[in-house]
Design a protein that fits this description.
Strand content: 15-25%
Shape: globular
Oligomer: single chain
Structural class: alpha+beta
Distance between the termini: 91 Å
């Protein structure tokens, strides 16, 4: 049986090999693409659009310019499993969180809008992130396989897999990944629609340059269109549990000089279990990241290894290893969004669900409602209705009933900022200035 010190020396070599890459040969572009797709397919199964690589800097209100034709988007989504997030146009800061999450702890109009209050509980940024008040989400457990000969067949954007594979010193393994401490937050489509239409009306000249070009003589089919993709909900994960189960005895040549396989821990036979755990986790800490990093809460020895997070050994035997990876702050793994077609005059068309579009599912086309802004009558009516969110429910009921009696009546939200100035004037005269 190896001593704790010997285990430590073995682990140092294994971890360094893992951090350098899971295979002694560089993975080809095709392999890397396949790896990314496998990860994305797992996330897509949960009915969200995957983010790859993971990022903290994505939130509801982010607006991206989509220059790829729809048929090409569907092809890219099918081949890669995800859509690259590029050409960020603007980050909107829509209001309405306190109305959408009424009485929700930590969400009110006097505090920073999500996710700032959870990312940085204190203004100086010294306090650790605290998402305990954020809405929870849950994801299924995903299965995957890894192999040194072919590289990772699943390019998980986490370090636990290559580290675990080298700790096992195995040529191939099957495994499971569980996304834990998952959260979600967002805003309703109506609230986001008002925000993007307001910005669009103020940026008409900018949007006109992306208006559909005229068709060439003899060209068939519709003109190429540009879209704005507007994020309205994101999904984040703080902790990833990875379990690997060895398929073969050793990795042989793939271990790149690391000493022969060692049973890291078999709690059924090893009386020094805690000592070995501590030794392995200390080595993981020393091999990965700055020495002055703050350990993850609940972990005795788990300073950063990737993305400001930490990796620690949770369980190990001669044929299996379980590891826990925690990020410093939750990272976005997926999102939901709406697409707005940029029309010839620079106006925006009606919202369409991005997920349905890229999956090729048919959608009924709605007629766009022009955004004209909030005029003086809109301001008066909004104050009478109780401000953002229309808190005066009795007045909302009265106005709704009155609109239902008008020959040109529409929904309150449409009336407030749509092309209905006379309807707003009549409503203001009746209810606000009788």
């Amino acid at each position: 049986m190896m001593t704790a010190h010997a285990v430590g020396r073995w682990v140092i070599g294994a971890v360094l090999v893992a951090l350098a890459g899971c295979s002694t040969t560089r993975m080809s572009g095709d392999q890397l693409a396949r790896v990314a797709k496998d990860w994305a397919l797992g996330i897509r199964a949960s009915q969200v659009i995957p983010v790859y690589p993971l990022t903290e800097d994505l939130q509801p209100g982010d607006v991206f310019l989509v220059e790829t034709p729809l048929e090409d988007q569907i092809k890219v989504y099918s081949e890669k499993g995800f859509l690259p997030l590029e050409s960020l146009v603007v980050r909107l800061h829509p209001k309405g969180y306190s109305e959408f999450y009424p009485d929700w702890p930590g969400v009110d109009k006097d505090k920073p809008a999500p996710p700032r209050g959870w990312q940085f509980p204190k203004a100086d940024g010294d306090a650790p992130a605290d998402y305990s008040d954020a809405p929870l989400a849950a994801f299924p457990t995903y299965n995957f396989s890894v192999s040194r000969s072919g590289g990772l067949s699943l390019a998980l954007p986490v370090q636990s897999v290559p580290v675990g594979l080298n700790l096992l010193d195995t040529a191939s393994a099957n495994g499971t990944i569980t996304l834990k401490d998952a959260y979600t937050y967002g805003l309703p489509a109506r609230e986001m629609d008002d925000a993007v239409k307001r910005w669009g009306s103020e940026s008409r000249d900018y949007l006109k340059q992306y208006a559909p070009p005229p068709l060439e003589p003899g060209a068939k089919g519709p003109a190429r269109s540009f879209y704005l993709r507007v994020i309205n909900r994101v999904y984040l994960v703080k902790t990833v549990d990875v379990s690997l189960f060895s398929n073969r005895g050793t990795a042989a040549d793939g271990s790149a000089g690391v000493p022969g396989k060692v049973d890291l821990l078999n709690i059924a036979n090893d009386t020094d279990a805690k000592k070995r755990f501590d030794e392995v986790n200390k080595v993981l800490a020393s091999a990965s990241g700055p020495k002055n990093a703050t350990p993850d809460p609940g972990s005795a020895a788990a300073p950063p290894i990737a993305a400001g997070g930490s990796v620690r050994l949770a369980m190990a035997t001669s044929r299996s290893v379980s590891m826990v990876e925690s990020f410093a702050r939750p990272l976005v793994i997926g999102y939901l969004a709406s697409d707005y077609r940029i029309l010839p005059n620079g106006e925006l068309g009606p919202a369409q669900a991005s997920l349905a579009k890229v999956e090729g599912r048919p959608q009924l086309l709605a007629a766009p409602i022009a955004y004209t802004g909030c005029d003086s009558n809109c301001d008066r009516l909004k104050a009478w209705l109780g401000g953002e969110g229309f808190k005066e429910k009795a007045n909302v009921k009265r106005l709704t009933e009155w609109l239902g009696e008008q020959p040109d009546g529409v929904a309150i939200a449409d009336m407030m900022t749509g092309p209905y100035p006379d309807l707003r004037r009549r409503a203001a005269v009746k209810f606000v200035n009788p």
